[in-house]
Amino acid sequence: MTSHIPLSSSELATLWMTYQQKTMSQRLLEHFIEHAEDEEAKEAKEILTSTHNKIVHYIERIKQIFEQEGAVVPVGFTEQDVNTEVPKLYDHLFDIMFLRLLKQMITGFAQAANEPEVRKYFIKGKELSKKIIANYTQLLLASDIQASSTWAGKATNSQIAPFSDKLMMYCTSIFCSFGLGSNALGTAFSLRNDLPLLLIDTAKDILTYGQEGGKIMARNGWMEEPPQMEDRIDLTK
Are 102 and 184 members of one domain? Predict the structure, then answer.
């Protein structure tokens, strides 16, 4: 009989983060699926449903691993974080593009957030996004390069939140992480000497914005504590 080899702390941390992201995606997709009702959205609904089913399978598998390891299963995002009965927040095409880009959600978040502090934060993020797009578009046009389209689909006029403020804040936090990662790669591999300074400036703005969001989440108790290693110093006192 083979003995069980426990997961390392880094492996548990990766699973914990994956669980947070998968449960968030599960709840977002539930809203999109519920409102993909017209004939044009039929194919999108099939893709979204298939993706949702796969995500649910991954979530259950991660739960099993946590239980096998004797670790606490994270809360993640539950049915309390989505309301599928409210009007749709985004129009057709946005749902399917969400699977590829995870972008252009912040306008909808800004108009539907419940807490004034959170709404103000999303408005600030929308303005930061516009600034970043304008800066890079200007740089491309100066080199006679046509900027690519940044979106497909847009927010509707609904101001009723289909998602909890907690979920929307976490989703925005992931956007910030993606942005910082992309800027780091761009800075490292760019062969243009005019790009690194712009990329570094962008990363600074994203980092500052992300830190502000983290403080909001902490104040509202929306940051779930990840698995912790034993404090050996404390245990030996």
Answer: yes
